[in-house]
UniProtKB/TrEMBL annotation:
Residues 161-337 form the D-isomer specific 2-hydroxyacid dehydrogenase NAD-binding domain. Keywords: NAD, Oxidoreductase, Signal. Belongs to the D-isomer specific 2-hydroxyacid dehydrogenase family. It comes from Luteimonas vadosa. Residues 1-22 form the signal peptide. This is D-2-hydroxyacid dehydrogenase.
Amino acid sequence: MKAIFPLLASLPLVLALQAAPAAEPMANPQSLALVEQLGLQEADTPSRDYATWARPRKVAVLLPASWGAGRETLLAQVRAAAGGAEVVAFDGTSLEVLADADVVLGVCSPDVLEAAPRLRWLHSYSVGVERCTRFDGIDRHDFVLTNNQRVYGPDIAEHAIALMLALSRNLGAYGRAQRQGQWLEDAPQSMNVEGRTLLVLGLGGIGTEIARRAHALGMRVVATRNSSREGPDFVEQVGLPEEASTLAAKADFIVNALPLTDDTAGRIDRAFFAAAKPGARYISVGRGGTTDTPGLVDALQSGQIGGAGLDVTEPEPLPAGHPLWTMENVLITPHVAGRTDEARERAMVIAIENLRRYSLGEPLLSVVDLERGY
């Protein structure tokens, strides 16, 4: 990790040096440019119109110790955006500071919600918020939830493309041979991705970035999305979720970028894999719970699915002895697709911009529908 966060450190000095608590935090042009670049959605309703809104009194910001020297820079930026509210940092190991916090920047979990009875607004650093939205006790908490949707799209998309190319070129087999000192000449035949068909399951922020990169590689891209049949020009066809199996029948590669909700849990099941094009490669970078893991194992063992690249699994982490660990046609990374310095910088810029908006009662970015789960 970089010692400082250049995107954050470049915020105007007028933010970092505000002395009067009553001074209104000013919009930062660089932050607003990032909002536009990522295509973040602004709420139709100003936050001051929410029944739960009030000017924040205490803001608790998660700053893990592993972030090192950059924590102090971030803390100063949060204070500048908080509109005079008290700002305290916590590292996630102890939640006592949340007892009287009305705003939390960090993660949304049952433990956090129970520790923050006065919570009015929580901004999640992550995109997936299923730990909150699928929590049985969520109805006991009246708060607004926002997340960092689209922020990690470029990073996760690159990781998905890397897994796809590694599978197409049998890099797993060559890596194993290298560790054994073998010059492997009889590995399975590699394949080009140019001219092949990619199915993106979940054409949201991450899925769109995956599709963009696949199209640039000369691939034919089709996709599914929950909201409509519309998509960018580089996606040839957009279907609804119930059409996923039909689209999979013609896809050489399938990338799962679905969020985990009640509707998507286990959606990519045995029936889906049976309907897929024989030998198709499957990549999962959304949430492991959307995939029926035993069904995937059977499809890989039978050859119906020709290989898998998994950044997320169910369960996570995989237990010792799980068959996926030792399958030669499977690549596994430990949920690290979005873990880059650049992604963290973008995530904190958006969190701080949303805090500025909330402190002034302005419309928030990326408000989560608690019923839909995203």
